[in-house]
Write a structure and sequence with these properties.
Elements: E1 4-8, E2 14-18, E3 24-25, E4 31-32, E5 37-39, E6 52-56, E7 71-76, E8 81-83, H1 91-100, H2 102-115, H3 119-131, E9 152-158, H4 164-175, E10 179-182, H5 188-199, H6 205-226, E11 229-233, H7 241-252, E12 256-260, H8 270-275, E13 278-280, H9 283-295, H10 311-314
Helix pairs in contact: 4-9, 5-6
Length: about 325
């Protein structure tokens, strides 16, 4: 059975249009008998939106001048499939087009390049008309891709009384990020007793601490120096002076630092956070930060939910 989709153009006027193929595959690959109101993404010049339309939420199908806030999902006109979409986050659309329709994406990019020559090329064309010089050949667009071969070394410093390290490790495994995790010796008993057990007992407790600390520093300083990113966790229950020292050492080395702690102790850590690149409140934010800086991927749902406002909507363009 063929179904009609109401397509809203840039002017906001709606017209009936029967899509090629008749039926709309659902995300799972099945068939749907619903009719949907499709509309264009406004204000975006990104190449993927040439072939993708937004699907209006069921309760907003009769609304005029639909915007991305009114969309429940996206629809690919090339393979006639639905794509996850939320306002301010079109990563799923981009990944869909890159994976399934790279040829069309390249074609759209080339067409945009032909339609909008750079100021430099316009200047060169003007030079040709004035002095007879040949215009420079148009260079191909350079695409920037995130590295898929680098293994990122992330050092996890800080408190040892909770499972925050395992939470980060599980999140990295789930997202299949190219990350190698390291940490200090998280056994408090072993880190306290290592020097006395290996080098022998000391009568002076103060010296016992010193030789143990120096032995532990062989590991911590080496791994921090080798790290690409240093994550430092502070908790509410204990004073984490060693973690603060690790943060300062990493800052002195010019390392990228992510601090992790509950909001209740933000004031006490203001000096440390001032040198951090990112300040997180829970381990999931650390994983999402790593996913973004390594692969450019963002979470499907903004942290603040419906309160999230895209940057373009917050400024006057």
């Amino acid at each position: 059975m063929n179904e009609d989709c109401e397509v809203t153009g840039p002017t906001g006027d709606a017209e009936k249009q029967q899509l090629t193929g008749g039926q709309h595959p659902t995300k799972s690959g099945g068939k749907s008998d619903e009719s949907h109101v499709l509309f264009d993404m406004k204000g975006s010049s990104r190449r993927e939106w040439k072939y993708v339309r937004l699907v209006a939420k069921e309760e907003l199908r009769t609304k005029k001048d639909l915007t991305s806030t009114d969309a429940s999902k996206a629809y690919c006109t090339l393979c006639k499939s639905y794509i996850t979409f939320s306002k301010g986050n079109g990563n799923s659309v981009y990944r869909h087009m890159e994976k399934r329709h790279q040829g069309e994406m390249d074609l759209a990019e080339n067409n945009n390049d032909d339609a909008k020559p750079s100021k430099r090329l316009i200047h060169l064309e003007h030079a040709k008309n004035t002095n007879g010089a040949k215009p420079a050949k148009k260079q191909k667009t350079i695409k920037h891709h995130f590295s898929k071969t680098k293994i990122w070394k992330v050092y996890l410093s800080g408190e040892i009384h909770s499972d925050w390290r395992e939470d980060i490790a599980q999140g990295i495994r789930k997202q299949k990020l190219p990350v190698s995790l390291t940490s200090p010796n998280t056994s408090r008993e072993d880190s306290d007793n290592c020097a006395a057990m290996i080098l022998g007992m000391e009568q002076n407790r103060r010296n016992w601490d010193v030789i143990g600390a120096r032995m532990n520093s062989v590991r911590t300083q080496t791994l921090i120096r080798e790290a690409d990113v240093v994550v430092v966790r502070f908790g509410e229950k204990y004073g984490h002076w060693n973690a603060a020292f690790d943060a300062g050492y990493a800052a002195a080395l010019g390392k990228s630092i992510i601090t992790l702690h509950p909001p209740s102790i933000s004031h006490m850590l203001k000096e440390v956070n001032a040198f951090a690149n990112v300040v997180c409140e829970d381990p999931s934010q650390v994983v999402e930060t790593l996913a973004y800086v390594i692969e450019g991927s963002l979470p499907s749902t903004p942290r603040d939910g419906d309160l999230f406002v895209p940057f373009r909507d917050r400024i006057e363009i």
